[in-house]
Design brief:
- This protein has 17 helices and 23 strands.
- α4 runs parallel beside α6.
- With about 500 residues, the chain is an alpha/beta fold.
- The chain folds into 2 domains: about 270 residues, Aldehyde Dehydrogenase, Chain A, domain 1 (3-Layer(aba) Sandwich); about 180 residues, Aldehyde Dehydrogenase, Chain A, domain 2.
- The strands form 6 sheets. It has a 7-stranded mixed β-sheet, with helices on both faces. A 6-stranded mixed β-sheet has the order 10-9-8-11-12-22, sandwiched between helices.
- A hairpin with a 4-residue loop joins β4 and β5.
Length: about 500
């Protein structure tokens, strides 16, 4: 059976491995590989390698870093389909979705290729007589990223290309559920010319996570995952003196006003709720219909759901694949059971598919007449389950969003520019879509929510990513003429 081990010093780890975890094919339910689960000593080995590499990488010229990044970018383009197939085989998403994931990760690599422009400092001449002040951005040192199962290629690329471009060395701890893409991309980076130890991949579970969070030689940690774990990562990492960016969970609402283009809204909500089987932190999981919008919208949504092809990710025409594990499938089915028991109207039931097929499948599930007290409304299900809440007014829709503890993404569908502008100004959410269901920013902006969807004040990629992986230093310099020397015990003044 295939064994997946750590990637340290630009090669597979050849040391002894005491613990292994199973890696499944979600489409069949069968174990296809085993992944090494790191000990604290193995994490220490990866960190020691990264620390040694940083001694020289931090002083590598911007031209050299950029050249390596451009080569890495080209290798990703040439191997895009290979990466996508790894995602399909271990995560379960369909091939077209996997290709989209690689493309969105690639966009961050391309952003990082512009690092000479991104780390420019500022300069003021003669802030005082013959005194100049300027700022520079310097790397943090050894940094780490802990990434989720739902985007095994894209989310790591939110982190390590920018971190490495800024002169840091990087420890990646990907999800143990779908680990192969991380190793494959690290190997591509090595082929691009990245020196040994600059990017190390350590596989594992909570043992590895806890060592990363407490390791004294790691200066910053970025994380994407569920809210309880994001809170734990933030609190543990900051208590150890680290800079931490921790992105948590979501319960994203899509508000549809009565004047909206209902065909556009139906296409959008089906795509956003059921793409990647709902295993996205930006998936729409609550549909809020205002006034009589539901009467016009729901038949169109049902019509589209009946045509969604659920199948293994490499099958021709597949639009939605399985969930990542049997445990997660059972959890999602349990929420569907709770929704029925609570009195919500089950319009489309995906549970039958979980019983009829091998693998970890759940079909598209749609609830109507959901109320805010129900678990299917309150909890992040992370599966192909959409809850519809009917309200009479825009104000009621806004109140639902304001009261929700999550604030990752939100969308409004309307043809009324005034209503849209009012919504984007008032809504307390980090990423807002206007007639766009999944408003994930491009690489030159930054990704992150509010409230319980983000811990700390740092977001992912874009300029906020550059700032997270660098520290500012301000230098004030004087080169005086000899005739101007002398003692002055007064407080320094700029004149």
């Amino acid at each position: 059976m295939k064994q997946i081990t750590h990637w340290i010093d630009n090669k597979p780890f050849d040391g002894a491995v005491a613990r292994w975890g199973d890696v499944y094919d979600p489409a069949t339910g069968l174990v296809q590989a085993q992944v090494a689960l790191a000990t604290t000593d193995q994490v220490d080995t990866a960190v020691a390698s990264a620390k040694a590499a940083w001694d020289t990488w931090k002083d590598a010229s911007l031209s050299r870093r950029t050249a390596i990044l451009f080569e890495f970018r080209d290798l990703i383009v040439r191997h895009k389909e290979d990466i996508a197939r790894l995602l399909v085989s271990e995560h379960g998403k369909v091939f077209s979705d996997a290709m989209g994931e690689v493309q969105r990760g690639l966009e961050v690599v391309e952003f990082a290729c512009g690092i000479p422009q991104l780390v420019k400092g500022e300069f003021n001449e003669n802030v005082s007589t013959a005194v100049d002040t300027y700022s520079i951005r310097q790397p943090v040192g050894v940094v780490a990223g802990i990434t989720p199962f739902n985007f095994p290629a894209m989310v790591p690329m939110w982190m390590y290309p920018i971190a490495i471009a800024c002169g840091n060395t990087f420890i990646l701890k990907p999800s143990e559920k779908d680990p192969s893409a991380a190793n494959f991309c690290a190997e591509l980076f090595a082929r691009a010319g990245l020196p040994d130890g600059v990017l190390n991949v350590v596989h594992g579970d909570k043992v590895a996570v806890d060592r990363i969070l407490r390791h004294p030689d790691i200066g910053a940690v970025s994380f994407v995952g569920s809210t309880p774990i994001a809170r734990y990562v933030y609190e543990t990492g900051t208590a150890s003196g680290k800079r931490v960016a921790a992105l948590g969970g979501a319960k994203n609402h899509m508000v549809v006003l009565p004047d909206a283009d209902m065909d556009l809204a139906a296409d959008a909500v089906v795509s956003a709720a059921y793409g990647s089987a709902g295993e996205r932190c930006m998936a729409i999981s609550v549909l809020v219909t205002v006034g009589d919008a539901a009467d016009h919208l729901m038949p169109k949504v049902v019509d589209r759901l009946e045509k969604v092809k659920v199948a293994p990710g490499l099958e021709d025409g597949a639009e939605m694949g399985p969930l990542v594990t049997a445990q997660h499938r059972d959890r999602v089915v349990g929420y569907i059971d709770q929704g029925v028991a609570a009195g919500a109207t089950l319009v489309a039931d995906g549970r039958a598919l979980s019983r009829e097929q091998d693998g970890f499948f759940v079909g598209p599930t749609l609830f109507d007449h959901v109320t805010p007290d129900m678990a299917i409304y309150k909890d992040e299900i992370f599966g192909p389950v959409l809850s519809t809440v009917r309200v009479d007014t825009y104000e009621e829709a806004m109140r639902l969003i304001v009261d929700n503890p999550y604030a990752n993404g939100v969308a409004i569908f309307t043809n009324d520019g005034g209503a849209a502008r009012k919504f984007q100004n008032e809504v307390p959410v980090g990423m807002v879509g206007v007639n766009v269901p999944i408003p994930v920013p491009m690489a030159y902006h930054s990704f992150g929510g509010w409230k319980n969807s983000l811990f700390g004040d740092a977001r992912m990629y874009g300029m906020e990513g550059v700032n997270f992986y660098t520290r500012m230093k301000v230098i004030t310099a004087r080169w005086p003429d000899p005739e101007h020397r002398g003692v002055n015990l007064g407080f320094p003044q700029m004149r």
